[in-house]
Amino acid sequence: MQPLWGLQTLAKDGFAGRNFSDGIGVHYVDAFIKPMNVKLEDGTPVRCKRRGLKIVLSAGARKGEGLMRRIDVSADPAIMLNAALQEAAKAAGIEFMVEDGAIFCTL
Question: How far apart are CA 70 and CA 48, in angstroms?
Answer without folding.
Answer: 20
